[in-house]
Amino acid sequence: MLEDRELAVRERAYAIWEHDGRPEGRNLDHWLQAEVEIGIRSLQSPKRPAPVRVATKRRAQSANGVLKRRAKP
Predict the structure, then answer these.
(1) Each residue's pLDDT tens digit, 5-39
(2) Separation of alpha carbons 36 and 47, rounded Å
(3) Residue 66: DSSP 8-state
(4) Beta 59-61 vs 67-69: how paired, if at all?
(5) Would you list the domain boundaries of the chain?
(6) Considering only CA atoms, which of 33, 30, 35 is closest in space to residue 7?
(7) Most CB within 10 Å of its CB: which of 20, 26, 34, 48?
(8) What DSSP letter does each residue of 14-58 carry, written as one string?
(9) pLDDT (0 to 100) of residue 18
């Protein structure tokens, strides 16, 4: 998986370099821009599983000390 990400960053950095007119000495700028773009894309990817929410019972203590179930907001 790490190799896939590195390959994607490498290909994107090359595309950015070509788009900018193939300037000399800006390889780090292109690489970092590609990492940001690939990172954002991976965060938006539907491949990531959604976080699992655990249902919990909400309880509140009444004035007389008896626990009762509170409605979810």
Answers:
(1) 899 999 999 999 999 999 999 999 999 999 999 88
(2) 18
(3) -
(4) antiparallel
(5) 2-51
(6) 35
(7) 34
(8) HHHHHHTT--TT-HHHHHHHHHHHHHHHHHH-TTSPPPPPPP---
(9) 95
Tokens of 65: 């000390």
Instruction: Give the tokens for residue 42.
Output: 């991976």
Cβ contacts of 12 within 8 Å, gap of 6 or more: 34, 37, 38
Please give the Cα distance from 11 to 56 (Å, whole number). Answer: 46
The residue type at 30: H
Average pLDDT over residues 35-49: 72
